[in-house]
Amino acid sequence: MNRTATIERTTRETSVRVTLTLDGSGNAQVSTGVPFLDHMLELFAKHSLCDLVVTAKGDTHIDDHHTVEDVGLCVGEALAKALGDKAGIERFGFALLPMDEALVEVALDLSGRPFLVFHAAWEQEKIKMFDVTLVEEFWRAVAVRAQMNLHINVRYGKDAHHVSEAIFKGVARALVRAVMHDPRRSGIPSTKGTLSA
Question: Nearest Cα to 114, choosing from 96, 141, 87, 90?
Answer without folding.
Answer: 141
